[in-house]
Write a structure and sequence with these properties.
single chain, 263 residues, three-stranded antiparallel β-sheet, globular, binds 2-phosphoglycolic acid
Length: 263
């Protein structure tokens, strides 16, 4: 696991955006794994700017989102489909038919989960998976105790997640307690994954992810098994890590090596 500690949230978003831009220039038909939440918004804004200025094109790529609330249709303002349309898809040249988000309003959610896995497989798997992290260590809606080999399925949201996300729902709106989410196994199958976290509220979850034991109690710790995972965080999110100086040293060495190899 590569741990990149940057000064602030803008640098975190820029690092993430550059990874997506590089991925798309290397492979225009890339399969992107996308995430919702407040953390990726700044990254999406940078991708929109890069698309408008012609530095990146999404024309040939496809995307799969991590998760969706079960019971919300795509036109519900709190649905993750709606979020993606507003925050990214409506502003870039991606083919709308190639943007996939789990179906929140399906009559048959179990089939929809299998179908989602099939579609990812048929596209050849996810090249680059973007992740946020919950303050309880969740990735997607894989809450603590999620199976480390799990696939796309229905998950019950943890009370902490319902609390964290309550701010997005008005008091007269019913907040869903169920979701469809890619599994941890689905995420681990991505060729590369990038987890972004900013702010002190994420510091405990980041310490458990990077330095804690591999455990379903912190689903993001499963990334320790990922062959190509990078955790990109600001100083606040890094504040509970023990080995900060070592990670910074490794990153300096990485940059030196890349410059030497012309990568
Ligand atoms: P946040 O959510 O980016 O809004 O903090 C992250 C998550 O719960 O995955």
């Amino acid at each position: 696991m590569q741990v990149v500690i940057l000064n602030d949230s803008d640098a975190v978003a820029e690092y993430g955006a550059q990874l997506f831009i590089k991925q798309l220039s290397k492979k225009p038909k890339a399969v992107l794994g996308l995430a919702t939440g407040s953390t990726p918004i700044a990254l999406y804004q940078k991708l929109i700017e890069a698309n408008k200025s012609g530095d990146v094109s999404f024309k040939e790529c496809s995307s799969f989102n991590l998760d969706e609330y079960l019971g919300l249709s795509g036109d519900h303002p709190q649905s993750y489909r709606y979020f993606m349309q507003q925050q990214l898809f409506n502003h870039i040249d991606i083919n709308p038919l190639q943007t996939f988000v789990p179906a929140g309003d399906t009559d048959n959610p179990i089939d929809a989960c299998h179908h989602y896995e099939d579609m990812i497989r048929e596209k050849g798997g996810i090249d680059l998976q973007l992740l946020g992290i919950g303050s309880n260590g969740h990735i997607g809606f894989n809450e603590p105790s999620s199976g480390l080999m799990s696939r796309t399925r229905i998950k019950t949201l943890a009370p902490a997640t319902i609390r964290d996300n309550a701010r997005f729902f008005s008091s007269d709106e019913e907040q869903p307690h169920l979701s469809i989410t890619m599994g941890i196994g689905t995420i681990l199958d991505s060729h590369q994954s990038i987890l972004l976290a900013t702010g002190a509220a994420k510091a405990g979850a980041i310490a458990a992810t990077v330095e804690g034991p591999l455990t379903a109690a912190c689903p993001a710790s499963a990334l320790q098994m990922h062959p190509n995972a990078v955790v990109v965080i600001d100083e606040d999110a890094a504040s509970q890590l023990q080995n900060t100086e070592f990670y910074k040293h490794v990153e300096r060495e990485n940059l030196r090596l890349k410059a030497r190899l012309g990568l």
